[in-house]
């Protein structure tokens, strides 16, 4: 009941503001000089725009009322819960693999425990890259073994202050009563070897359902299913269906290690997602206190280093500014969206999203891009803002733009399934016309029905996305409409979007950052009425085109890192500047009252300069890629020499960086 009252209060404020805006828009039009049809149309368009953006002041008011502090979730002991840290990868280069293994290693070693495993599920095509993935696995296994061996020797000697505190509690403390000599000679090897075997790589056979299918198959393998039974029906999925009974993964020792383990939870992660030390145990404790929750959604922090680009710092700053609003709204509505990275309860997920052999569900569409919306609709995630994962922000505006286009395509695809008649049928018709023989008719086996709150959360990105063409339409119609206060409406919209939300978050500590972020947002988002509309058009074309070719975002980033930022920005965005220049001249010559259009074209013309400037580091220097040397099972860190061999993870190294030397006679490599 209390949740219903909170939801009613939240949306009643929104509706009230929207109705007031409609009345004021009607009064603002000079009807004596305006065609009635045009006037009604502009009132409708403007009311929709303002109704959409009133989401921001309502969220701001809610934050001021309920508070934007991080909520501490109820916790319970989670010693018996098991979890797999699941990274998912489609590598196109060795750099992709290096980055993924580095983040996976940090997550695993920083959260090591007897109930924690780490599994990379790869759908990499290139055989050389797949081989390289296994080499990197063995390299990191060697590092893990020797790091644990090093700590084990320190533990046996009582040097507890030299051991990672997290691992002291989760790994070593249970052996505190074992005699040190016995511990080193009889226990340490098995301990180190056991944990190295929990750092695994699985190569998936199929690419059906993309990333979502990667961790779905991992869950099924853990439950004892080694062959495919989901997404095998050509009646629903056409040629996108995979053969029934096809192996889920290529056979390997790691596949055998996961089979029938029945992990309780899967922490789904992207290749660049970092997991801070101790975060896994906190998430499991929250999950233990909420056993009915299918997804525990931690906060996602955008983390950047001091020498990262200005744009990256702005993105991180923007997230920090709006974090209190996220905390308040999730507390007010009692649920959260799913960000594609979070803790999933395997059994609940399988029962509600995938189904069994005898009763298939398959709620996620086979051609999905934004799988998290389907999953959030069914499992209604619990937000755990006190725990966080780390990701790097977009490198600059260009890579942000590429990511937004990919997300727009995913939102359009979602709309085809959530509104199958109003939007899905026209899109399927266009796909059939343009794709011809390559057209594949697909459908969802079990459609997802959203309640009011779930629908509001799920379609937040879609609302913001389609606000941009509406804003462009208003700017165009604004030219022929006589308003009593010509620019008040658009000023209110910009104020509500860019300034008003800061009232709930600005304070003495962050006011400088808030000011800088506001100025940057004006430069970045003012052209979005036009750029965002173009992006939607491209995304629509991508969804109906038979030959969509995507340039990997990482490839663009690598190009930008070795290029002059201003030259690179002009190379990618020159078309916008040229369009803005020509359009400004034409508007200036033929249209008298076009101030809003001139402002939009002006910021659009300067977009390459804004992009180049924000691609610099905070000290206004160009950032160039630092060359790194590849390493293979040869790593010297803190004086620890790695001497491991494939298949065995035994250490014969010298601990030269430590205050003691261990006796190699106590430890030997079995042949």
Could you please describe the fold and organization of this structure?
Keywords: Membrane, Transmembrane, Transmembrane helix. The chain crosses the membrane at residues 7-27, 39-66, 465-481, 487-504, 573-591, 597-616. Helix content is 55%, strand content 7%. The chain is an alpha/beta fold and 671 residues long. Among the domains are: 2-66 and 456-614, no CATH class; 83-123 and 204-393, Spore Coat Polysaccharide Biosynthesis Protein SpsA, Chain A. The strands form 2 sheets. It has a 7-stranded mixed sheet, with helices on both faces. It has a two-stranded antiparallel ribbon with strand order 8-9. Strand 8 and strand 9 (640-641) form a beta hairpin. The radius of gyration is 28 Å and the shape is globular.
Topology:
Blueprint: H1 2-28, H2 36-53, H3 55-66, E1 83-89, H4 94-110, E2 116-122, H5 127-156, H6 165-172, H7 180-196, E3 199-203, H8 210-222, H9 234-237, H10 253-258, E4 265-269, H11 279-289, E5 295-302, H12 310-333, E6 342-345, H13 346-354, H14 371-379, E7 382-391, H15 397-418, H16 420-435, H17 452-458, H18 460-478, H19 488-498, H20 511-525, H21 528-544, H22 553-561, H23 565-590, H24 595-605, H25 607-614, E8 636-637, E9 640-641
Parallel strand pairs: 1-2, 1-4, 2-3, 5-7
Antiparallel strand pairs: 4-6, 5-6, 8-9
Helix pairs in contact: 1-2, 1-3, 2-18, 2-19, 3-12, 4-5, 5-7, 12-20, 15-16, 15-21, 15-22, 18-21, 23-24, 23-25
The second-level CATH architecture of the domain at 83-123 and 204-393 is: Alpha-Beta Complex
The total count of helices amounts to 25
Shape descriptor reads globular
- pLDDT < 50 stretches: 626-671
State the helical fraction: 40-55%
Structural class: alpha/beta
The CATH top-level class label of the domain at 83-123 and 204-393: Alpha Beta
- Taking Cα atoms only, what radius of gyration do you get, to the nearest Å? 28 Å
Main beta sheet strand tally, sense and closure: 7 strands, mixed
Task: Report the end-to-end length measured between terminal Cα atoms.
Answer: 68 Å
Q: How many strand units? A: 9
How are the strands of the biggest sheet laid out side by side?
A: 3-2-1-4-6-5-7
Question: What's the CATH topology label of the domain at 83-123 and 204-393?
Answer: Spore Coat Polysaccharide Biosynthesis Protein SpsA, Chain A
In round numbers, the mean pLDDT is 86
Beta-strand content bin: 5-15%
């Amino acid at each position: 009941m209390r949740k219903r009252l909170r939801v009613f209060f939240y949306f009643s404020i929104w509706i009230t503001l929207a109705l007031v805006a409609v009345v004021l828009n009607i009064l603002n039009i000079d009807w004596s000089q305006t065609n009635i049809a045009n006037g009604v149309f502009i009132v409708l368009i403007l009311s929709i725009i303002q109704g959409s953006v009133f989401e921001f002041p309502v969220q701001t008011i809610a934050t001021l009322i309920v508070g934007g502090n991080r909520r501490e979730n109820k916790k319970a002991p989670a010693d018996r819960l098991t979890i797999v840290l699941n990274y998912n990868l489609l590598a196109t280069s060795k750099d992709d693999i290096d980055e993924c293994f580095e983040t996976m290693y940090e997550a695993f070693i920083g959260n090591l425990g007897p109930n924690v495993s780490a599994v990379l599920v790869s759908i990499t095509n290139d055989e050389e890259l797949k081989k390289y993935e296994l080499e990197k696995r063995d390299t990191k296994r060697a590092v893990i073994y020797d790091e644990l061996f090093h700590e084990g020797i320190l533990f046996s000697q009582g040097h507890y202050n030299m051991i990672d505190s997290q691992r002291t509690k989760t790994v070593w403390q249970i052996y505190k009563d074992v005699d040190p000599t016995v511990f080193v000679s009889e226990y340490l090897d098995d301990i180190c070897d056991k944990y190295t075997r929990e750092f695994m790589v699985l190569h998936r056979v199929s690419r059906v359902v993309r990333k979502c299918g990667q961790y779905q198959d991992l869950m099924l393998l853990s439950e004892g299913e080694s062959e495919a039974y989901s997404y095998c029906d050509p009646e629903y999925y056409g040629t996108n269906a995979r053969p029934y009974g096809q192996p889920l993964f290529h056979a390997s020792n790691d596949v055998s290690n996961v089979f029938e383990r029945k992990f309780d939870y899967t922490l789904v992660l992207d290749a660049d997602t970092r997991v801070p030390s101790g975060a896994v145990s906190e998430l499991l404790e929250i999950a233990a206190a909420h056993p009915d929750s299918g997804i525990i959604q931690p906060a996602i922090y955008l983390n950047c280093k001091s020498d990262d680009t200005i744009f990256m710092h702005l993105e991180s700053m923007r997230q920090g500014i709006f974090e209190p609003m996220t905390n308040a709204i999730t507390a007010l509505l009692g649920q959260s969206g799913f960000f594609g990275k979070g803790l999933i309860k395997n059994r609940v997920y399988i029962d509600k999203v995938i189904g069994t052999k005898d009763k298939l569900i398959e709620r996620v569409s086979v051609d999905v891009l934004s799988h998290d919306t389907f999953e959030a609709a069914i499992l209604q995630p619990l937000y755990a803002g006190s725990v966080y994962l780390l990701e790097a922000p977009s490198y600059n505006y260009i890579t942000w733009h590429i990511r937004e286009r990919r997300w727009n395509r995913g939102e359009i695809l979602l709309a085809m399934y959530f509104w199958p008649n109003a939007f899905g049928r026209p899109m399927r018709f266009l796909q059939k016309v343009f794709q011809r023989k390559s057209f594949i008719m697909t459908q969802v086996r079990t459609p997802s029905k959203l309640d009011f709150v779930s629908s509001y959360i799920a379609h937040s990105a879609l609302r913001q996305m389609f606000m941009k063409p509406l804003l462009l339409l208003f700017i165009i119609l604004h030219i022929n409409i006589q308003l009593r206060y010509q620019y008040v409406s658009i000023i209110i919209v910009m104020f509500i979007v860019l300034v008003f939300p800061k009232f709930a978050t600005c304070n003495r500590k962050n006011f400088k950052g808030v000011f800088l972020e506001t100025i940057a947002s004006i430069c970045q988002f003012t052209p979005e009425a036009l750029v965002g509309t173009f992006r939607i058009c491209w995304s629509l074309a991508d969804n109906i085109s038979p030959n969509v070719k995507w340039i990997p975002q990482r490839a663009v980033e690598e190009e930008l890192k070795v290029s002059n930022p201003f030259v690179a920005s002009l190379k990618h965005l020159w078309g916008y500047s040229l369009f803005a220049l020509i359009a400004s001249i034409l508007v200036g010559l033929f249209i008298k009252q076009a101030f809003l259009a001139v402002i939009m074209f002006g910021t659009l013309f300067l977009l390459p300069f804004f992009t180049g400037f924000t691609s610099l580091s905070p000290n206004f220097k160009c950032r160039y890629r630092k060359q790194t040397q590849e390493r293979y099972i040869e790593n010297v860190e803190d004086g620890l020499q790695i001497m491991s061999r494939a298949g065995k993870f035994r250490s014969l190294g010298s601990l030269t960086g430590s205050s003691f030397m261990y006796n190699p006679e106590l430890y030997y490599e079995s042949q």
